[in-house]
Amino acid sequence: MDNHFVCHHANYNCSTVAYQPAIILPGDKSISRYILVLQTLLILLAAALGSASGELPLIPDAPQTAPCVGMDFEPRNPTDVYDAGPALVPGWYRIWCGQRTGEVIGQPDQWMAYGPVELLGGTFYVFDVVARELSVQTPQMINPMLSDPLPGESVIWYRLSTEVAYVVCFDGPYQTSEEAL
Known about the structure:
Layout: E1 3-5, E2 17-19, H1 31-48, E3 54-55, E4 71-73, E5 82-88, E6 91-100, E7 112-119, E8 123-128, E9 133-137, H2 139-142, E10 154-159, E11 165-174
Parallel strand pairs: 8-10
Antiparallel strand pairs: 1-2, 3-9, 4-11, 5-10, 6-7, 6-11, 8-9
């Protein structure tokens, strides 16, 4: 008998994943099938919970211009790719980001909106502008002299490109993920 996992989340396209309960014996070649199902379930669960980790989804039908003022970053030296971003109050945010190949500072070639993401208080994040990934890190990963964020703030640092300028801004906070869309 097949069991099904169905993701009922308004912000994501989810599919049904079928699996069959079984005992997996050592050396069983079907184990890869079960690992794949488990990985799929974990990915769907993270998406359903609004996880702020990994590559962020594009927000469909986002406006052509960001509703926030962008920070402009020139290409970086490969030995110094991190730069400080904002300290934000916890909540749901949209991340606006785009490459800038033109001469107008603060204006990317095209804004792209990602998220929504929930930023938690007392948490240090790194947003990789090239990979569009937001991850939880320790401040000491960037610099041993940095301290942990306060409980009422979410601290953002950026991992920047060594080749292209980028413009980034965070739009929020919103009370819910639906409000941030």
